[in-house]
Amino acid sequence: MWTTKTFLTKTKRGNIIKIVREHYLRDDLLCGSAACNTCPHKDDEFVLDGKPNSICTLYAYPHYLILDTNVVLHQIDVLEEDALSNVIILQTVLEEVKHQNTAIYQRLLEIIANKKRKFYSFVNEHHKDTYIERNPGEKQNDRNDRAIRKAAVWYETHLSINSVVGQFPKIVLLTDDENNRKIAQEEGIVCCSIKDYVENVTGFIGLVDKLSKNVAPEACSKDALYPAHLTPAQIHEGIRGEGTAVVNGFEKPILLQGHSGINRAVDGDSIAVEIFPEEEWRRPMDIVLEDKADDDPGDQLEEEAVLLKNTKPVQQGDDEITPTGRVVGIIRRKWRQYCGILMRSKFPGATRHLFVPAEKRIPRVRIETRQSDVLANQRILVALDSWPRNSDKNAENEVILLEHDVPHARFSEAVLACLPPDDWTIPEEEIKKRVDLRSECICSVDPPGCTDIDDALHAKALPGKTEDGLKRFEVGVHIADVTHFVRPNTALDKEAANRSTTVYLVGRRIDMVPDLLSSNLCSLRGGEERLAFSCVWEVDENANILHTKFHKSVIKSAAAMTYEEAQIAIDDKSRNDAIVSSLRILNTLAKKLNRKRLDNGALSLSSPEIRFQMDSETHDPVEVQAKKILDTNSMVEEFMLLANISVAQRLAAEFPQCALLRRHPAPPPANFHTFLKAAKQQGFDLDVSTNKAFSKSLDSAVIPGRPFFNTLLRIMATRCMQQAQYFSSGSKTVEEYYHYGLACPIYTHFTSPIRRYADVIVHRLLAASIGCDVTHATLLDTKVANSVCDNLNYRHRQAQYAGRASVTMNTHILFNKRVEVELASVLAVKRNAVHVLIPKYGLEGPLYLPSDKFTYNEEEHIQTCGDVVLKTFDELTVRLSLDSSNLQHRKLVFELVKPHIPGFSVDVMEVEDTKKETEKDQKKRKEETPAKSASKKSKKK
């Protein structure tokens, strides 16, 4: 039988012609399977085994593989290995590969021609049962995906009916297209990604290392640091008509400036280049770059050909000028295999490393391998997978995570298998086991954009009064019941224990538990029923605790609010609804709890926290500001602290040898030496003999007219502290339980089990203490408890460092080509610099001082230049910019504006010009760029 294909095309002269082609369909095409007893195969036409052995643990039964086009295009290195066999290559795929990449097409033909590999080419486009027409308006890619799924269904049906063996081979479709997988599963097709399949193949060491980490094109539209390449049509039009040209026609090489100028081109590529106007041309740099053997390896691309700082602007009549431009498109890639060495990660067991090519013109490449021990001492060959637009920012984030040993791989299939279904709802029998609090007016208060909501609160007045005639209130803290889903010793539990904490980078979150739990089933979202672990107090109007109880509960949050929304509701006198009433009670009691803690010796310290405003399209930072603290921040914090203290007291009583607690050692006197000397220079003798005396001293250290001084003092006091630590109660004396900063004898973490594994352990212990769950051996094992605490402390510390590194990276992105003039405060005076903090942004860094102008007094920690004396806490005016001369270590540069020191301070006229340019640039950016905020969740101690 036959069908016709009709399509329109345009001639060179612009005429439209109609073309009709006949397309013949047959019913005698062979399936190629030895399991089939219907197709008239000859003996040498059986390519596919009748009962193929499965090498993948995901599918224990015999099966054939069908691949989609992208799997072939991006994973040809895997296909060339002997591991995969009994593979069906459809004509649809073969033709697409031929159209897109002739080199890979030839490699695929060689695999098919090798009879030992058992790759069978099936002509689905000419089989009457597998050919499909393209629907009106349907994209060619979507039609081809549909054709591949049609062939997969046909094979499954054909073999089930016509098999000569008892258990006929099934079909597994390999595709990395998530939407295609979803549709395939709906059509009853077994499918998975090539990554999942290969990672579960047994008996072939090193196969996983062959996987390409290629990023789908649609994933590159966000977080893109590089400009998008022009399409082939745009490149052709630009070269032909507008003078956007390749280098041909220029006597001198075109200077490509910076990452964006090179725009992912690699030596040997054929490229299209946009030439900049002549006023932007430059003289070549007149220095020789030093090749340092001890360069600190990063995952940044090396721009050894171009250092912007050393190129010089054009001068009138300068005959050394060089044309400049930028790559706007790749006409033809010249990628090949590159020889080099493996630079291993410094972390034991890491799988992600850097490949350093022998050719310096080739950038360093991030690769994954489990054979680093073997490869480290050898010269190896590496082929490039891809270079997407967002790779540098992703690479920098990757480097941050790797440098701080943050586990961030995708959750394994074993972990995901522990999760409930997406549509899980609370079973009725589970509700019957719990205290039903769905009728209570409970609400959550969190930072904007928070999706992992792990705590909610409620408060209400109780009838009657205390014996002293005081009003009575019920206050509840309700925490996500993560342990209902994360059961001990499961793959999910082991993964959470290893990660230990959720890591918050700017604009990105590395979850401790999968998203289904962290942002859905465990998150206490407004209007949805959720399982919780509740701590409920009866208190009097002076915030004295009269009674405490703990129970597993089911709640339904009435509202999920931001701190600002809650503050507005509290302040709105026209509102008197149940939510506002609850918030006002909480706020009033929180202030009394706070006063009690401070009177008891708790320290109210500070740290410069910042919030980035992010571009809604690129997710790059467009503005930064110091974080605002509202009463509602303190309100939530006070009740989280109270819950943590109450739970700690219960656990220590029930499990004196294995309770997981958190301590904060008092800082040694030596930590305060420089700090006290600096405070004395400002006229304050601070008493640090006890935390209570220290707290009182900080409260009284105020300078009229300098409201930021006291905050600065508390920031510096924070840096005198030691790190708080998790510990097992049996490993310390009771006196060592003390938490210096909070001035409480015992403390733990109970309120954030979505993002801290310490809280998961605490929930299990508390549940056992109230008879809601059973204990298990490892929970009571002191040796295991100590090991868990060691990992918790390590991961917690590394997460903090990673978060700070992410802030630094985004600050560098923000201040690229941006200069600000701002007020700064001196945090410390060093031998060659003063360390300054800009309150407006919460940014800090060194302002270097030349030794030929300044004299350093080591005893008093002051710097002197003539009449100018610089000491800790002084206020300065500085100019802030970014130094990108060292691409591996970009840094903020602080330059002195005031006080003015001739020959050193930045010129006043230059500052005024900077202000005008900056204001103009900021105004333009605000007009053009919609923004949204991004910050890490940081409301609990």
TrEMBL record:
Alphabetically sorted, this entry's keywords are: Cytoplasm, Endonuclease, Exonuclease, Exosome, Hydrolase, Nuclease, Nucleus, RNA-binding, rRNA processing
Q: Which GO terms describe its molecular function?
A: 3'-5'-RNA exonuclease activity; endonuclease activity; RNA binding
GO BP annotations, alphabetical order: CUT catabolic process; nuclear mRNA surveillance of mRNA 3'-end processing; rRNA catabolic process; rRNA processing
Q: Does the keyword rRNA processing apply?
A: yes
- Give a Gene Ontology cellular component term annotated to this protein: cytoplasmic exosome (RNase complex)
Query: Which cofactors does it use?
Result: Mg(2+)
Keyword check for DNA damage: no
Q: Where is the RNB domain?
A: 434-772
Q: Where is the composition biased (Basic and acidic residues)?
A: 912-930
Q: Where in the cell is it found?
A: Cytoplasm; Nucleus, Nucleolus
Q: List the InterPro entries.
A: Dis3_CSD2, NA-bd_OB-fold, PIN-like_dom_sf, PIN_dom, RNase_II/R, RNase_II/R_CS, RNR_Ribonuclease, Rrp44_CSD1
Q: Name one Pfam family in it.
A: Rrp44_CSD1
For this chain, the family text in UniProt reads:
Belongs to the RNR ribonuclease family.
Q: What is this protein called?
A: Protein DIS3 homolog
